[in-house]
Amino acid sequence: MEWLERLNDALDYLEANLEAEVDTLRAAQIAACSQFHFQRMFTYIAGVPLGEYIRRRRMTLAALALTAGEEKVIDLALRYGYESPTAFNRAFQSVHGVPPSRAREAGVRLTAYPRITFTLTVKGETAMNYRIETMGAFRIIGMKTTLPMDMEQSFAAVPAFWGRSVARVPELLPLAAGEPKGLLGVSACMGGETFDYYIAVASDAPAPEGMVEYAVPAGTWAIFVCEGPMPEAMQSLQKRIVTEWLPTSGYEYANAPDVEVYFAGDQRAADYHCEAWLPIVKKV
Q: What phi, psi does 22 have (nearest 5°)?
């Protein structure tokens, strides 16, 4: 399957550059998607964030080098991209539980993380309700935060941003007009080492003081129904979309924002209803 082949080609690139600076944008280009979507797919499919996977693989190889020869710790630190032995020691100990200075001792237990290979196993035991819609460009207004291109950090940072912003939501809701209806969470991620996340509404009104506006380009979205308490239900659905629906759908990620649509109700309730909008394009 071409989709899996591209992901595994990106993994080949990562493995070939563990002793150099890994360019995640280049890896995303090999996988034929945006940097944001590549990191999201990797995290959901591999079960570990991309940055953590790279760190584990580097420390696995560093341990093998230490036990196989007399290479100095400072030389290994430089080889695997660490500017100081202190940073290298911290990374090594976080993986192996011991500092690199002890790696050559007899009986010391070290940890190995083998290179992963992506394969496809589609479970599909639970139904996924969705529809496909093509929409023109629409404008949003609301609050914005800029986050690092790290899925593990964003999973924590986005709920925290909602917590800080909830007091201003009542100002936004009366300004909502047009589609999509509801309170929106928009990930705008066209490239670079960061992405912008908006809490917003679709509107033609001026942005209130201290808020911003953003134009979501025209595109096609696969729109999935999400039910359950937030944010766990949404994060779980996003994982299922990437690992179960996308590989066999005939679509791939489009270079456009992800949109979450939240409706009125108790977001911690078991029957809370919202939507996940996945930007898509037909596979060529």
A: -80, 120
Cα dist. 237→44, 50, 140, 244, 245 in Å?
11, 20, 24, 10, 10
**CATH number of the domain that 278 lies in?**
3.20.80.10
Question: Which residue segment(s) compose the domain that 222 sits in?
Answer: 130-282
Whether residue 140 is found in the same domain as residue 219: yes
CA distances, 188 to each of 2, 155, 185, 215 (Å): 26, 15, 10, 10
pLDDT given at position 247 = 83
Pick out the chain residues at pLDDT < 50: none
pLDDT of residue 9: 94
Which residues in 46-92 belong to E strands, given as ranges? none
Q: Residue type at 225?
A: V
Cis bond before residue 49 (omega within 30° of 0): no
Q: What is the pTM of this model?
A: 0.79
Give the C-alpha distances (Å, rounded to integers) separating 85 from 64, 79, 90. Answer: 17, 11, 9
Q: Which amino acid, residue 39?
A: Q
Kindly give, in sequence order, each residue whose CB lies less than 8 Å from that of residue 275, ignoring residues fewer than 6 positions away: 180, 182, 223, 224, 225, 226, 260, 261
Structural domains in the chain (count): 2
Query: What are the backbone angles phi and psi of residue 189, rounded to the nearest 5°?
Result: -140, 70
Instruction: Give the pLDDT score at 56.
Output: 94
Cα separation, 60 vs 62, in Å, equals 5
CATH number at 45 reads 1.10.10.60
My answer on whether 51 and 165 are in the same domain is: no
Domain identity same for 176 and 267: yes
According to the model, what pLDDT value does residue 207 have?
96
